[in-house]
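[scheduler] slot 2 assigned
[scheduler] job type: sequence-to-structure, two independent chains
[scheduler] chain ordering preserved from manifest
[runner] begin chain α
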Amino acid sequence: ISERMQCPPDYPAVCALIALSGLVGRQVVIRPKRLDEWQVVPNLWGGIVGPPSRLKSPALMDALRPLIPLERAARAEYEQQQLDYAAEKMVAEIEQENMTKTLKGHVKDEKKDAFATAQDFLAQEGTPPTERRYRTNDTTVEKLGELLNQNPRGLLLVRDELQGFFRNLDKPGHETDRSFYMEGWSGNSSFTFDRIKRGTIHIDAVCVSIMGTIQPGPLTAYMAEARKQGAADDGLMQRFQMLVWPETSTTWQQVDRVPDHKAREAVEDAFRRLDRLAPDRIGAEQPDDIEELPFLRFTQEAQQQFDHWHASLEHRLLKQDLEPVMESHLAKYRSLVPSIALLLHLVDGAGGAVKAESMYRAAAWVDYLETHALKMYSYRPDATIFGAQVLVTRIKGGALSSPFRSRDLKRKKWSGLTNPTTVDGAVGLLEELGWLKRTSQATGGRPTDLFTINPLIIQSPRG
């Protein structure tokens, strides 16, 4: 895909791995410790970051190609089941009419027997068939909850433009939507909707994998909100651990060749195999509690590797020398490494405990993913950097009183700071660097943010 489309290999690779996570879902989990019951559902969120016209969407769709034959087969099976159910329902209605006539003759003399007979008859009534779903593109959370009840192993949510997904979550009145998706990230949590029209919908396990594409500008805006440690800093963005932002080539050449059908068939075979995954056949342990999920553990060698990696991560987090959003992001690698290790183990067709090779590759994946996370959390558009430089010059020149409001700065229309978005970005950048300190002032309505200039900056020699 990468060669034929001339896009970074990161694009289809990441999308394929997320698609596999949605396919496996809750069929089997991994318990990353030797004895502990902590379990990880291999559920992944992520996608592609890149400028327009870089073939993000075609690469994503081609990576999802192996799901198409599975979906067609499931749809055909569902259509046949619908026909069978309709025929059974017609016969059942006739039988019910006959049963009603029979019960009328016995209900006066043998009421208890009639009641038991009616119960037995109703217990045999069939339930409408449900379609096996693999993915959805656009849905309300209530409808998604219904789909999850019909597909308890989980679903894949594919959004060609993640920006639209984020915008919907940010709308007033959609706070529950945001909570629902955050619960769906772990794949272990239940959720209950209570709606007047729909009534009560209880989902035993919310498991949603998410993938999509997004351009640098919108992503930067969301990252800026998360860095402010306000309402947007709730951990949603940090859950997109498989979000990649590779460098794109500046060269192009004509590539027109037949796709590698042997490789494609091998991938489709892996998808088919994991769709029909039988936990007992791969050596998964079944807990005593039937409500718990089948699980695998690491081999002894892989366990040693994971324990060493895990200890290194925890010690790194304890140093508290990371930016809060980055610390939150890395903390979620606790589940990311075992998730990837399990998926790679299953794709390889290996049975039994997860081997050291899969654990090693998973650790290499997160080393790679961390470089992309650093890029996303530190990226600033050129306009923001230039605006920050202008603001620094104005502060050192004494042209701005302390404290000040963002709108006061916007009214000044200084060169390089005429765009409100640029002003907010420049102020946010200087806040991160310690030049400014944000405080909230109550006004009787919506609170106003005040920015105080670091006195050490004002006192320093101008230059």
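[runner] end chain α
[runner] begin chain β
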Amino acid sequence: MKPGWLQGTRIRATNGGDSRFGGVFGALVIGMCATVGLQPAVAQDSTDHGLLLETFDAAWQIVYDTHYDTTFNGVDWIALRDELRPTVEKATATDQLRAVIEEMLDRLDQSHFALIPSEVADTLDPSEGDPSIEVGDVGMDSRFIGDQLVVTKVDPHGPAAQAGVRPGWVVVAVGEDRVDDFVARHQEVESRRSLEILIWAGLRNRLQGTPGSAIQVKFLDASDRVTKLELIRRPIPGEPVKIGDLPTAFAQFVGEQRDAPDGRIRAGYIWFNAWLVPLVRQFDLAMDDFRELDGIVVDLRGNTGGVGAMILGLAGHFLDDRVSLGTMRTRTTELKFITNPRRVSAAGQRVTPFDGPVAVLTDGLSASASEVFAGGMQAVGRVRVFGGITAGAVLPARMDRLPNGDVLYHAFGEFETTTGLRLEGRGVFPDRPVSVTREDLLTGRDAVLTAALDWIAAERGRIARSHSADDDREF
């Protein structure tokens, strides 16, 4: 099963099914797919052969009716139905049906297509719509560096930090799940980026649980010694947010001044974990504080998407004109992403959008709405992107219930920048690629952020020299 990203305005189901699984703009659902990857699939027998055929036909028809590309990415969709349906006619169990539907979706070779089993879909959110129900984590994040899953960030106030975990440590196993074994089980995933995202999401899901519960994690420490720790989950920090029927998300935001080590420049640093509406005001307030600084860094590393409409306002902090960042197209409609210049502060005072250097930081987990922002702003020449290639998962998609209770997750549109560049399957390529090394993490160095601050300093120097030359000419 491929990891998927959900991006789209909430709409009613068009197949006559349950509409509560309509789409929302940019919320990532790879976690649910990773749950399936980590845990054995629940094979459900079905004695209703007619239901198996009805479910296959419904899945095929939904894609046929809603896929934005009438050539179906080069796949003869009608011939594919004729090829696969006889297998379903012989099927006697739900797991056989699911295998056929997954093969059908795989033929498209695109993100945002997945089959979510009903037993997973029905338990996506243990709070059942009540965001006050607590979910716990251990306060750390990780990425693949080479063939190792390396801790890249540790919350200084979280359980992992309190247990002694530091950036640069290697995750060997979470509970009974060894990282190496999980990689071996998913070698059929062709894209390394997809494999890394799948494993990251699986680890995240395995680490999360009820606050107060324990999870055993095995690491290699800075000296490559095997270290096994029991981490006690704490409530996930941040404001709980519900988007449609997706699992509760927790809005987290960092806005602080980061100066270059040599003091050349003062920069505003903004990081947020997802494009969630409660963070709009925090972004606005941070920009008010940073308006007089030398540059701004927007850190989208690990930001897997969210409410895409936020892009227009947040981009307006850096553009003084109504500028298009790109176009989303469905089979019947076209929507241009026109930015909204921010000329009033959060306090209601007249301001002008920030016109200094803006750096955007990305990695392989920057997805969906983050890619639209980074790629769109890069295409119009307003930002410089540092770090790694993004996920390449930018299709707007939705969820529909199938007759047997499974959920079909499927794309209905595509996005391209103003330069005609399609980011799906490609990602945003950084202007300045910066590799993350374990050695840097162990020493506390953020090479990507350092490169961005150096660029801001160089840009400020260039601007100052230009102004000085203009003054000389006027004299």
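[runner] end chain β
[qc] chain β: The radius of gyration is 23 Å.
[scheduler] slot 2 released
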